[in-house]
Every structure is written in C-alpha cells, then in structure tokens.
Amino acid sequence: MTYAQGINEFIDRCNKVMPPNFYTLPIDQQRDMYLGLTKEFPYEMPPEVLVTNDTVFYEGRKLPIRVYRPKQTKGRGLLIYIRGGGFVVGSLETHNTVVAELCEKSGLVTIAPDFRMSPENPFPAALEDCYGVLCGVVNDAQRLDIDPNRIVISGDSSGANMAVAISMMSRDRGGPKLRGQALISPVLDFTRWRQGGTDAPLLTGGEMEYYTACYAPEPDRGGKLWCPI
Questions:
Q1: What is the rounded distance in angstroms from the CA atom of residue 16 to the CA atom of residue 20?
Q2: I want to staple 141 with a disulfide (CB 3.0 to 4.6 A). Which of 19, 148, 163, 185 is the partner?
Q3: Distance (Å, rounded) from C-alpha 67 to C-alpha 65?
C-alpha cells in the first residue's frame, strides 16, 4: 500500500518502540513501551497553557483530573478529553502535550480525567470514573471557573468510544447536558474487523481482540455502552 510522504517513516519509528506483537507482552511492559512513544516523538508543552492536577468528587469518590488553562481563554466553555490506549495502556503523561495543544488551539479550559485501567478494572470501571468526573466538574463549576452549560466531550480511539458512551449515560441518567462531541478515530464497533480484510499498520486484529477482551471480558453485559454501534 502506498502512503503519503513521511507515513512509512512514522510507522517504522512507532514499530521500533512498539513492535507489532507488543500486546502479547506483560501489561506493565506494554505501558512502559507506550510511554516510550512520547520520547520517540517529543513535543514541547505550549508555553501559553497552565497545567495543574486537581480532584473532583462524585458520590463519595475522589476522582483525579488534570486541568489545562489557556492564558487567553475564549469564554468559560469546557473541553473534557478522554485519552485513548485500548483501555489498557496510556496515562495522563502519555497524552499530556496532546491535551495541552488542544487547550491552546481551542482556547478552552480542558480537563483530562484519570481513570482505572483494564484488565485490572474492566468495564464499566473507566466509564463510571469518567462519568463521575463529568458530574463532579459540573458540581464544582464555580470553583473551576467553567460554564456547566457549555461542555464538549472528546477523546481519541478507545477514549472516543468512552466519550460516546458517557454522552449516552448522561442522557439516560438525567446527567449534565453536553453541547457536543469531538471524536478522533473513535472505536465504535468491536465486531467489524472480524468480517475480513487485512491488518492496518500499527493496529492489527489481534490487538483489537486482546484489548477489547481486557476491557469487556463479558461483552454481552455491556450493550451499547460497550459497543455504541
């Protein structure tokens, strides 16, 4: 397959850090390798963004968040960004500069929830954590200086999956009303790759099988919150 200029080099650099079979390695090693991508592709933090760690509370639980504030804000709207990583790898650190850039470019206060990871804490643990952050942020809107009526939820890959699911949870539970979604390569259907085709660079059918099994070992219980489409 022919790719645009620079893509093959990008794929090679990723595979150097995370070879195609990396998902067969121990979980801790996978997470270390994923973090290694930030060293392979370093990106400077935008100087116009202030980053702080904070917490919100929901139903008696203390939920960690990272708050990004642009020096030049565009109103009091809020972007909540849920990181990807197959529900298994990734952390606030792996997506730190990505979220900071989104904050800078959007001019919005941006919050990245931390959440429990699979397989140690399978579905729906991460979803409940992130939904709790959404509700906790709204309850603490005055202190955080955000408008609870102007919230957009976003995420990449598995994080985008959760952004969709959280939107449905909020609708069905009578939770906070969201103004919109911004989804980056969302994983919305966990069955399509089983219908044939070839593996894509940096994402194989084996990886998808592994990570979705880690997230939802009993997928029939998840319904649309597990697989939105």
A1: 9
A2: 148
A3: 6
- Domain 7-226: which topology? Rossmann fold (3.40.50)
Beta-carbon-side half-sphere exposure of residue 50 (alpha carbons within 13 Å) = 7
**Phi, psi for residue 170 in degrees, rounded to 5:** -65, -40
How distant, in Å, are the alpha carbons of 31, 35, 93, 122 from that of 27? 6, 12, 17, 14
User: Is residue 15 a contact partner of residue 71, using CB atoms and an 8 Å limit?
Assistant: no
Domain ranges of the chain: 7-226
Nearest to 45 by CA among 84, 112, 102: 102
- Binned at pLDDT 50, 70 and 90, residue 227 comes out as confident
- Residue 87 and residue 158 in contact, taking contact as beta carbons nearer than 8 Å: yes
Q: Which tokens go with 47? A: 């100087």
Contact 146, 76 (CB under 8 A): yes
Query: Using omega within 30 degrees of 0 as the cis cutoff, is the peptide bond preceding 124 cis?
Result: yes
